[in-house]
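Hi there,

I know you've been waiting on this one. I reran it after we fixed the sequence typo, so this is the corrected version. Both the input and the resulting structure follow.
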Amino acid sequence: MTGATPQSLRTTAIGAAGSRPCTLVVCRGCCCGNPRKHPGTDHDWQLERLRAGADASGGRFAVRTTDCLGPCDQANVIVVQPSAAGRRAGGRATWIGFAMDDDCTDEVLRWASAGGPGVAAPPVTLELQFIRPPRGARARSRR
């Protein structure tokens, strides 16, 4: 490429991708969100809290649900996807396992409200619940 400079080679986000908010992808597959497998957790209440937090955030973050993400032995699983700004700052999707209690839900809400991966540091106690995504993981989200 003749005349190309580092600035002209830089990638820029266009359209909706350029303003994409931090997104919480909440697993609701075979084990996550299943009251028969995890009877001590109010899964519906957790999802309601996450959605209410997103509604109250003024667009800072969004919530989606998906079918099984894979690590069923670490249910409930939530993937915190970075916003466009977070991704530009180096943030990557962060997988959280064993996300079943109110404290974890509160920490996820605080982190997402603050900007999520690449924008804000996660709460230290939430880092203890970070898990590795299964190999080749792909989430098909639904609203």
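Quick highlight: The CA atoms of residues 86 and 119 lie 5 Å apart.

Best,
R. S.
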